[in-house]
Amino acid sequence: MSRPEYAVVVPTVGRNSLHRALAPLLEAPDAWAPTEIVVVDDRPGHALPPVVDHPRVRIVRGSGHGPAAARQAGWHSCRAEWIAFLDDDVHPPADWPERLCADLSAADAATGGVQGRITVPRPPGRRPTDAERATLGLEGAPWITADMAYRRSALEAVGGFDTRFPRAYREDTDLALRVVDAGFSLRLGERECEHPLRPGRRWSSLGAQRGNADDTLMNAVHGRGWRDRVGEEPGGLRGHVLTTGLLTGAALAALARRPVLAGTLGAGWLARTAAFALRRATAGPADPAEIVDMAVTSALIPPLACGHRIAGSVRHAGARRTPGVRAVLFDRDGTLIEDVPYNGDPDKVRPTAGAADAVALARRAGLAVGVVSNQSGIARGLLEPGQVEAVNRRVDELLGPFDVWRVCPHGEEDGCDCRKPRPGMVESAAAELGVAAAECAVVGDIGSDTAAARAAGARGVLVPTRLTREEERRASPETEPDPAAAVRRLVRGSAP
């Protein structure tokens, strides 16, 4: 069996368990080792010590927008045929890389993704707590990205993860359904991976109710029958609505001085709440703290669930499928306009073939458009800032207007963070547009353009010219012949 070309992406918020998750990858023999190991550091702030320091691990800075955006940044930066996603708290066994290779080798051309089998150890000598039961639910859950490998072509076809999902909830189910809708199949592999039993915090079930808002996005994007497609039992929202209605009715009746009606509705609420608490308490350990937790949270969960559902319905009203890319940032010279070295003359500006169509197509698809351009001629004294601005205005007249411009005036020796292949201009442009860097794509003609995208966690598409080196072509995850073809590639995952 030959080794499939695969990369491993691990998003993290700095858990100590990260090193345990990476160990089998770092210790794997060359015959089974991944071609790339990418850790997406999703901790807020950039002035932090690295989460891991190893020559085989590449660190990508996340945006702090949650696991969907972090995984998006991770696969954008990879070139491999397969992208395997692992959580930072799983315990893959020593032979996991070899067994992953076997799973991928067994996949036919129509297979878009292969899931690993998740096992969760049971607590010794007692029934699991409510929080632990949530972790145990990962066993048998379909298509969860705790251990899931996707073909890069499948991710490209659907735009990858939907970054509107802010939590580690539903973002994996959403991706799986879109991959299936795109004509790929998904299968369960033979490899296994242990997920430790999370003890959870007191009252953790209250915070979990935020997932009801994500369910409204699933309904909007996939229709109300999506649970049937993944074999999931109906949620408990209908019961929560009835319980909350009884409580609300009892309160209104009391305010209206109708004690009999208030008492009847209140008794109904109390009966349903007590039954709910009893079901949860008897499923767990006979621990007084757990029983109190179940009693209190059982009273609070129904109104919280309804509140989050209402908030999600407002937030996601009119939601539809969107591509993973929300903004396209073009390189200027050689991509949008013909490359005239150190050009300061607006009269010499000539759009490249496909540039106008590319910008127009991006706008029709609802994407923001911008320009990120190195202009070291300023640092070299060959150009004045005003000349660069005049050329940019001419580009705007011919192809724009663009939503954002970023120009780096520095030379290579200045050590700035904005000059491509550094990520500064991409991150700054994304911030001005109000999107995460992982929701951007960079279209350029040389390796520094796609390298800047990779460093920022954005998607990079190379549009080669006669100046593009062969090694830059080989290193680029995605290549297209002209800017219009690049944009068509980026928007094809959107719904019609």
TrEMBL record:
Major site of localization recorded for this protein? cytoplasm
InterPro entries under this entry?
Glyco_trans_2-like (IPR001173), HAD-like_sf (IPR036412), HAD-SF_hydro_IIIA (IPR006549), HAD_sf (IPR023214), Heptose_bisP_phosphatase (IPR004446), Histidinol-phos (IPR006543), Nucleotide-diphossugar_trans (IPR029044)
Concerning Gene3D superfamilies, the annotation shows:
HAD superfamily/HAD-like (3.40.50.1000), Spore Coat Polysaccharide Biosynthesis Protein SpsA, Chain A (3.90.550.10)
Q: Which GO biological process annotations does it have?
A: carbohydrate metabolic process
Q: Has keyword Hydrolase? A: yes
Give the protein family: Belongs to the GmhB family.
The protein here is known as: D,D-heptose 1,7-bisphosphate phosphatase
